[in-house]
Each structure stands twice: as C-alpha cells, then as structure tokens.
Amino acid sequence: MSNTININGRIVGDGAPAYIIAEMSGNHAGSLERALEMIHVAKEAGADCVKIQTYTPDTMTIDCHNEYFNIEKGTWEGENLYSLYQKAYTPWEWQDKLRDEAAKAGIDFLSTPFDNTSVDFLEKLGVSFYKIASFELVDIPLLEYIAAKNKPIIMSTGMGSLEEINEAVEAVYGTGNRQLALMKCSSAYPAKSEEMNLSTICDMKKRFNIPVGLSDHSMGAFSAATAVAMGANMIEKHFCISRAIKNPDSTFSMEPAEFRDMVNQVREVEKAMGKVSYGVSKQEETNTCFRRSLFVVEDIAAGEKLTPENIRSIRPAYGLKPKHYKEVLGKTAKHALKRGTPLSWEDLEQ
Questions:
Q1: 108 and 195 together in one domain
Q2: Tens digits of per-residue pLDDT, 291-300?
Q3: What is the C-alpha separation between 133 and 136, in angstroms, rounded?
C-alpha cells in the first residue's frame, strides 16, 4: 500500500497538487464534434484529465419496461433504464478519436468501464488507468477483472458501507494490484451539501493509507475546494459546454467558466494550505516593526531609576522585548534618555 499513485508519470497523493478530472459523461448529447470540443474546453478550464464512460445500453441493462426498469423518482424520474443509457452513452467508435484528441490537447484520457467487454475494448484502446463508478463498487468480479490489468485504478465509493468498501479494496489487492485510489462520493444528482459528509475523506485516508479524492455531484465549487483543504488528492466533476444543451447529465454539470473558477479555487486553497510553518513569513517581515517593545515615555535623567511611569510596552518594536519589562524596572539609567527613545541594555547600569 502507498499513499501515492502514479498516473502517466504524475504523482497523485499527499504533497502533490490535486488531480482534477473533468467528467464528460453524456454531455456530448450525441455529437462527436461536441465531444471533441469538450476535450479542449476541459484543458482550457484547468482539468488534468477528461473522462468518458464506456458502455452500451445492452452492457448496462436489458431492454425491458416493467416496473423494475422504470425510474420513479430523482433526476431521471419517468425514464426507462435502457432508454436513458441510449441517450447518455458514448459510442465506442468515437473513443479512439477522443483518445487521440486528448493526446493532442495535452490532457489525460480516462474512461469508466461497466463490464468485461468494455474493459477489453479499453485495453485495445491502450488506456493507462481506469475509473470505477460508485454503482459498480459491489461488482467484485468486475473489480477483479479490471485490477488484473495491473493499471492504476480510481474507485468511487458512493453508497458504499465500510464493509463494502473494504471488500472492494481487498478484491483489487487480491490480484496483486496496489495502484489504487478512492473517491468519496455522494451518488445523488445533484448532491446536497448536508449529505456530502466530507469528513469521511480524512477517515478514509487514515483507514486505507492511499490517495482519496472527491467525486463531486454537488452544485458549485464549494465542496471541491473544501475537500482539498481537508486533504483530498483528486477532484472529479461533471462538466458541459452549456446546461442549455439538454441531456441526462446537464442539470448537475459545470459550464466552462464555472469549472475554471473551481480549479482556481482549488489551486488557491492549495497555496493557502502551504506547509507547517511558525515564525515570520516573507510577507510579514515588513510588519514586525509594529509589534510592541519597551520605550521611554517620559524623559529620564542620568542615574534615575526606571519606573512604570517612565517606560512602557508600546508599539513599535525597536526596543527591548516586553518580556524584559519586570527585569528592567528599578534599574538605573546610564545616561539621559529622551521621551520616545527605544530602550536597550546599553542604556542601563548593569
């Protein structure tokens, strides 16, 4: 086990910048041209990786319209599963073009497979790492099949109990693959802030000692930036060209300017988190003079004693430190001292 993984030569984990994944999902709305454009938009918005999903309606479910296959509530209320996946899937014949376009744009290319045939397809496509969706967390045979390819895996854990997450992690490790990262996720679309439970990120990092990120379905950038402040090593967020282009994922996806703002917030958080540091920072150096120190506040004659009436701890900081106040009281001035003079040891009879 390691608290970092290597993705295309980039270290992901503690001490490294958060790895940011732009999830295209169904936001291409059936247009290859739009999907190709989205790769460049993701790169321009600051994403490190663009992600698609590899499935067909028939690899996800069956074409059946009885009560088990119809969605009764939530974002996709009224939809049939098979019909929904027909609208949302990314045609497999596009995916080599998308991979090549990502390479041209200089952005990592990632996909989520949903069955063994999609894993085989992605292997032929030459993907260098895999994403596992929250809903497939419990599909242990699929996890083992993916892990056996011995490539890095990013696995979402939405809806997962601790027992289920442990089982999934052990399934991956059982193949000898130790290149694993987890994603805290709330599998609601969109997710409510009060159900994000970002504190789980810290707990997962302690329990598993591997990189942990956030697969974020909430609206806005707040949860992503907060997660990074709490130690998240990755952020995954759905994005689109415009929410006006309707598709199954558009309502909870970020537009380009919003995605860029999220990336900027994450990077500012990383700067602010910095490192453990005590003492004066470079920017604070010019302000140290505004600390307090011991000053003469009434004229003192040579041979006169120092008293609370003629010395005080005041700003600025050009005299002795205030911690010496009791030590100098009652001492004798070596020479005359004018009001407004910073006090030094050289001014006192020893």
A1: yes
A2: 999 999 999 9
A3: 5
